[in-house]
Amino acid sequence: MTDQEHQDNYPLRQGFALLLLGSVMVLLLVRGAYLHVVEGDFLQEEGDARYLRNIEVEATRGMIVDRHGEPLAISTPVDSVWVNPQKFSKDRADWQALAQLLTVDVDKALKGRMGRGFVYLRRQVDPELGKRVMALAIAGVHLQREYKRYYPTGEVSAHLVGFTNVDDQGQEGMELAYDEWLRGESGEKQVIRDLHGRVVEDVKSIRPPAPGNQLALTIDKRLQYLAYRELKAAIQRHKALAGSAVLMDARSGEVLALVNQPAFNPNNRAELRGNLYRNRAITDLVEPGSLLKPFTVAAALESGAVNRNVTIDTHPGYLPVDTHTVKDFRNYGKVDLTTLIQKSSNVGAAKLALAMEQEALWQVLSDVGFGELPGTGFPGERAGRLPHYSDWNEAQRVTLSYGYGLSASPLQIAQSYMVLANDGELVRARFVRQEGQSTQERRVVFSADVARQVRTMMESVVGAGGTGKKGAVAGYRVAAKTGTVRKVGRDGYMEDRYLALYAGLAPASDPRLVMVVVIDEPRGDEYYGGAVAAPVFSAVMAGALRLLNIMPDNIATRDSTAGSH
After folding, report:
1. Which residues are catalytic?
2. Which of 65, 128, 444, 530 is deepest in the core (most CB within 10 A)?
3. Are both 239 and 197 inside the same structural domain?
4. Are residues 498 and 449 in the same domain?
5. What are phi and psi of 483, to 5 degrees?
6. What confidence score (pLDDT) does residue 130 get?
7. CA distance 163 to 165
8. Could you give the CA distance from residue 516 to residue 508 in angstroms, rounded to a whole number?
9. What is the bridge-based pairing of β-strands 492-506 and 513-520?
10. Which of 305, 545, 293, 253 minimizes the C-alpha distance to 425?
């Protein structure tokens, strides 16, 4: 083609190029408009789906506190490390670095799970460790914010407070009983994630998390520790199998301290074994033995079967009833009601039972709470056993009078002694604080006059000649009762295994505190309730009266004790 022809075709080629370029521009504009107008929403959703995520925001579980607001259970933020196996780094060096930092076997954790999208490597690690994990910048590794339950008092209040599992769900104790109340409601938020699935920006809150409610218990952390310390020392000193102690406010029914041995540390999940975390004070049943005698005396007085000045002949120290023989420790001869309680005469209690209608004794025992649930709402609480009087034979009638043939938990026994402290009215035990005036139902069991008479008789137990002198508290009048009960085995009552019990209230002139101590199978030289359980009562009661600023009602003993040091 000549230069002339080339020049003649140039405008044609230029026009074609411009037309082509214009067509492309128009097509792009049309396509852009189509995508923006027609498919805009669809494409926006598809784009968002690749980097926008709605994720759950964990809610904080409510605190459990004591009566003064001191924390017993709190939730602290932690991180859980997880991986998406489908996006996880294939570099074995990354696996080794991660395994070394988390002290986990990554190969074992992922075995058979490579097709999944979510696998935990380690739950609830310290946030600082979580930061070090993310600093490795390993593909497919993520953190999930969670909360871990922490118990500041450890095993001191473990049986009452309980614990949660790794997913923060209540498993035992008040954590289980009030799980719904304590558990918060998770929230939701929208975030932007990068190509590796890591959150790089919070977009917006969809629903804020609602924290759980706080639960205030009736226990006093100071008294809880005091009871724990003294009970544990007694268990070790007497080489006992187990033990329980319950301290209650005599006026309100609030449980101020409740401890058991052996105990466990709820902060160490490796220790969480059933035989350790059973709350023996509420779930285990024992025969109360001689702790029941004050109620036998009260029933006899209330029914009118005897009067305050009656004399009972216990000679010669035993009493045949049907095929059963009731025995005393020795022959006490003729005794009044005070001596019956002071010396813990089985023969005296049996003769009182025979002197009154069966129904009268049964009614008192039933009304003080034996044979029915305490109603605290604590998981696993038991009603115990109180046979109906219509099923009693003569032998059962007399053995029930001194505490055999029925069963109750240590908490039930403590609750029953509330009747003696409250002038004949039953006040139910409770573990949760109530604001304002209590609306608890009060049950009248026997008259205030009878209750006061029996309390006065019980003071002789800690006096000279009583079986419970070691339960005395300097500066205070104490009304108490000892008990030593043979344990039941496969073939009946065992000769060499005992429960040592002690129950009492103080100050006896105006009772403010009630306490029960049970020591299971003391294995030393001493096994009587007055020798084994009474010192625990004395130490805890003395400390509690002082800490609660309760006025002494027996200055003479306090001054004489002070002068003897």
Report:
1. 290
2. 530
3. no
4. yes
5. -155, 140
6. 82
7. 7
8. 15
9. antiparallel
10. 253
pTM, two decimals, is 0.83
185 and 257 assigned to the same domain: no
Q: Is residue 28 part of a domain?
A: no
Residue holding tokens 């109340």? Answer: 181
Residue with tokens 């010669």: 316
Q: What angle do CA 263, 269, 271 make, to 5 degrees?
A: 40
Q: Which domain range does residue 404 map to?
A: 221-563
| Type of residue found at 229 | R
Neighbouring CB atoms inside 10 A of 27's CB total 10
Q: d(Cα 154, Cα 377) in Å, to the nearest integer?
A: 23
Assess if residue 15 is contained within a domain. Answer: no
Provide the 3-class DSSP secondary structure of residue 286.
strand
Pairing of strands 334-336, 71-83: unpaired
Half-sphere exposure of residue 117, counting CA atoms within 13 Å on the CB side? Answer: 2
pLDDT for the residue numbered 8: 60
Residues 209 and 186 in one domain: yes
Cα distance between residue 41 and residue 208, in whole Å: 27
- Cα 517 to Cα 226: distance, rounded to the nearest angstrom: 13
For residue 409, what are the CA distances in angstroms to 261, 302, 479, 518?
A: 15, 25, 21, 10
Using DSSP's 3-state secondary structure scheme, residue 439 falls into coil
Mean pLDDT in order along the chain per 10 residues (565 residues): 60 72 76 61 54 67 95 90 80 80 80 76 83 83 84 95 89 94 77 57 67 94 98 96 97 96 89 81 96 97 95 95 91 96 96 95 96 93 95 94 96 97 95 74 90 97 93 96 91 88 97 98 92 97 97 73 41
Q: Tell me if 16 is assigned to some domain.
A: no
If we measure between CA atoms, which residue out of 455, 500, 486 comes closest to residue 297? 455
Q: Where are the alpha helices (DSSP H) in 103-146?
A: 106-110, 127-135
Residues listed for the chain: 565
**How many angstroms separate the CA atoms of 405 and 329, rounded?**
20
What pLDDT was estimated at residue 35? 56
Element housing 495 (H / E): strand 492-506
**Total number of domains constituting the chain:** 2
- Position 95 in a domain: yes
User: Which of the 8 DSSP states describes residue 34?
Assistant: I
* C-alpha span between 21 and 472 (Å, rounded): 108
What's the CA gap between 90 and 524, in Å, rounded?
Answer: 64
Q: What are the DSSP calls for 323-350, one per residue?
A: TEEEE-SS---EEEHHHHHHHT-HHHHH
Distance of alpha carbon 210 from alpha carbon 221, whole angstroms: 28
Residue where one domain finishes, among candidates 183, 216, 249: 216
Which residue, 220, 240, 239, 292, is CA-closest to 540?
A: 220
Read off the CATH number of the domain in which 93 is found: 3.90.1310.10
Please say which residue of 190, 216, 242 terminates a domain.
216
DSSP annotation of 432 reads B
Q: Are strands 64-65 and 215-216 parallel, antiparallel or unpaired?
A: parallel
Please tell me whether residues 280 and 171 are part of one structural domain.
no
Q: Are 62 and 101 in contact (CB under 8 A)?
A: no
